[in-house]
Amino acid sequence: MLKYVLKRLMYIIVVFLIASVLIFALYKSVPGDPARLMLEGSKQNMKPEEYEARYQEAVRKLGLDKPLPIQYFTWLGNTLRGDFGYSITYKMPVKQMIGVPMKNTIMLNVWSLIPVFAITIPLGIATAVRRGSRFDSIVQVVTIIGYSLPFFVIALLFIFLFAVKIPIFPISGVQTPGFTGSSIQLFMNKLYHMALPLIVMVFTSLGGLTRYVRATMIEALRMDYIRTARSKGLTEKVVIYSHAFRNALIPFITIMTGWFISIFSGSVVIERTFLWNGMGKVIIDALNQQDFAVSLAMVMFYLILALVGNLLMDLSYGLADPRVKLD
Amino acid sequence: MGTKKRHGSTFGDVLRILFLGQKHTKLSLLEEEQMQSPYKTMLRNFTEKKPAMLGVYVFILIFLACFVLPLFFPLDLQYQDPTQQNVRPSMSFMSIPKALNGNIAQVDGGSVYGVGIDTNGTVYQWGVLNQKLQAVPTNMGRVVQVSAGLDHVLALNDRGQVFTWGNNRFALAPIPMEVGFTTIKQVIAGHQLSLALDTYGYLYVWGNSNIVNVVADDVQGNIEKVILNSNVAIALTKDHRVVQLSSRDTPFAAIPQEIQGKVVDLASTDRSAAAITNDKRVYVWGGQDHGVQEIPEHIQGKAIQIDAGRGHYTVLLDDGTVESWGWNIYKQSKAPNLKNIVNISSDYFQNYAIDKDGNIHTWGLRGYLMGTDQYGRDLFVRLISGGRITLTIGAIAVIISGIIGVIIGSFSGYYGGQIDILLMRLAEVVNAIPFLPLAMILSAIIGSKISETGRIAMIMVILGLLSWPSLARLVRGQILAAREQEFVTAAKAMGITEAKIIFKHILPNVITVILVNLTLSFALCMLYESSLSYLGFGVNEPSPTWGNMLFGCNDSTVMSQYWWRWVFPSIALSLCTISINMAGDGMRDAIDPKSAER
């Protein structure tokens, strides 16, 4: 097991280095001089000499006078220590700036996990067991439609139905602007605003996940051990939930990794449509305002998340399926 | 068997049967097992699935609509028209009420509606009417003249009284007191501006003077007729001269000197003006857009009445026929062959001609099938052209990702070892980084430096570069399974090069799986393109795609009042992706030998 973990770790470090060089290259190809951008706005209030001195100071501070490889390693070191750079629009370090959006995104995503799994897993199992039946074909068609619909179309439809035609939910936002009240009231207010994006989020995930659960279950139900279990005279319930589903869980880990990452990254489309102040919206705003430090920090952050997620996935494969370690 | 080629044995046959269909002949079980090639089995499995076939048919329809219809409804990227903003789907711009036929007295077209009076002086309206326009005053008596503007109407009754309804902002609603003390003979409604001319040749102006500022001091008391467009007012004086009623120097001031003193009728488009002289000749001056100055030669010496829309002219000739020329975007300058016409009226994109029996003939813009957007552009035209761009981007992105995925997957699967590990790790990382944020960043960084066409190409490349991992993994898995088979060993033993073994011996065996994956990722690429464009990081205005047509539609006003702006693109995009996915899903089931299990 230890050898397996070490091997995976090494691969991940190699991939990380390659990817980080690419991202650094992207970072360097961004239009605009970061040192000038940092001083932007204060140019009018300064004499030219003073400005020049401040500019040189900024260049030194940002390390722009050093050769590229050194810049790369300084940047990499900073990133690994959690220093993601400085946001020009918010005039504060990126790390500090993404605190609130991160909290909002995590809140939205964690809440959406519960209904999604509560619906998709039983539905997927039921369709796999009753494969080929009328019920199965209807669910199949509905889920195809579900995962073919673009997120924003579903979002627009739900806004139209539940915020415009029957105005029971607010159209957008995280909370009522200028809301005052006790912390419980504030929490309820946030929940109220979260309802519509949450519904949309759950709805958009249903189609794909149900089909995935169904496919893995069908695969598992074909195995010989299922036939053995049945011929032993076990009840169908035990066969399905104990024998088949546990084995179907293994590919499920892949999906879980995706979820783990998206908990932090958020859905760009949904957050944009509902003006939900989360990570997805941060990245859109950053790009619209040419605040590339923020957007690249986010990519770096996603990359690290993705790699950690992959490592976790590999490890859980190893735990769930002893055969994997032998490779 | 013998020498005759079996039907359905090649992939080309599969495609042909797929699109042309084939007759089913019932065979006995034994025969069927012997005669059927794998492709034929797949095809039969596929054609038996109703949702999958439905998906194929719907997609073909959408595809044809997006690639054939734009030939008939070409898109003008630069076209915008503020007078046609947010018009709801309707084809009623020129649907004149039946009651008017046979006894029509006068008719005038507004931006997206029309107003007319019958010989008894009753007012009728048609087209897209907002609430204010529907509130026609009831106390007008016998109306003898109406004039429709952008969004308000002026009416004149037989006692010389003036009435107005429609838009009531910009001081349009209160009719100036002086107008009530004199006898009005002509009323003109324009862009938020109202004019009234009395029998003594005095002009009265009210409304919003910021768009058109009418300065008539020099000719007051000498005006015979006034015309108004979105830039300027022009007057015909009692001594048959043309005068521009503006203090500014505009192209309309370049009036040909030879016509002064001889003018009998006057009209103007947005950028040019035209006049008919007493020898029945037509003169056009001012701007030259849309070919308004190319007057048909055969009408010279025969024209007796002229009227104009936003970019075209229509004249009535002395033999009772009509002729139009100029802008033809909505076929408004394509006059039908009419006879015995006594009166014409052209406005915006519509034309009306009244014959001597009081019947009315129309040509030009009847309305918009799917309404218009915030810039007054026809949504239907944008939808079909946008579909073409969306489909093209999706297809090319899939081809790019297909090439990368197949190459990487093949090498990874065939060689294994370190190459495999590295390539698959790379695939995992590309796959693991959230797709949209990364695509957005790439688009924002690269896209700021290139042209609009370059941007479209860039989106294809970005989508292709980021969506190959799933295919690569699939191909790798398939090749891993195939490379252990005897025919590969045999090929190796014969000394065939490795590249040839991969691409000529192994890949054809897995091509169906690849095709299914490509079909499904085609839908996915279209979804990604639309999402990017919806967020503003894909294809930008003015080029339409189904995604960017929805940009800015999460606004409550648009959602509730201009529903057509988001409903139609949403339906088109959803239908397209659903049909592709249904077809792809059916294909996957059809080629999966396990799913057959008979």
**Main sheet makeup of chain A:** 2 strands, antiparallel
Low-confidence stretches of chain A: none
Give the mean pLDDT of chain B. Answer: 82
Please give the most extensive interface between any two protein chains, plus how many residues each contributes: A-B, 59 and 47 residues
The CATH fourth-level homologous superfamily of the largest domain in chain B: MetI-like
Number of domains of chain B: 3
Please give the number of β-strands of chain B. 21
CATH architectural category of the largest domain in chain B = Orthogonal Bundle
| Poorly predicted spans of chain B | 1-6
Structure description:
The complex is a heterodimer of chains A (327) and B (598). Chain A is an all-alpha fold and 327 residues long. Chain A contains 14 helices and two strands, in the order H-H-H-H-E-E-H-H-H-H-H-H-H-H-H-H. Chain A has a two-stranded antiparallel ribbon with strand order 1-2. In chain A, a hairpin with a 4-residue loop joins strand 1 and strand 2. The N and C termini of chain A lie close together (11 Å). By secondary structure, chain B is α+β, with helices and mostly antiparallel strands. Chain B has three domains: 41-68 and 379-597, MetI-like (MetI-like fold); 92-211, Methylamine Dehydrogenase, Chain H (7 Propeller); 245-367, Regulator of chromosome condensation 1/beta-lactamase-inhibitor protein II (Methylamine Dehydrogenase, Chain H, 7 Propeller), CATH 2.130.10. In chain B, 40% of the residues lie in helices and 20% in strands. In chain B, the strands form seven sheets. A three-stranded antiparallel β-sheet of chain B has the order 1-2-3, with no helix packed on it. In chain B, strands 4-5-6 form a three-stranded antiparallel β-sheet. Chain B has a three-stranded antiparallel β-sheet with strand order 7-8-9, with no helix packed on it. In chain B, a hairpin with a 3-residue loop joins strand 1 (104-109) and strand 2. In chain B, helix 4 packs across helix 7. The relative contact order of chain B is 0.09. Residues 1-6 of chain B have low confidence and may be disordered. Classes of the chains: A mainly alpha (327), B alpha+beta (598). Chains A and B meet through helix 1, helix 7, helix 8, helix 11 and helix 12 of A and helix 8, helix 9, helix 13, helix 14 and helix 15 of B.
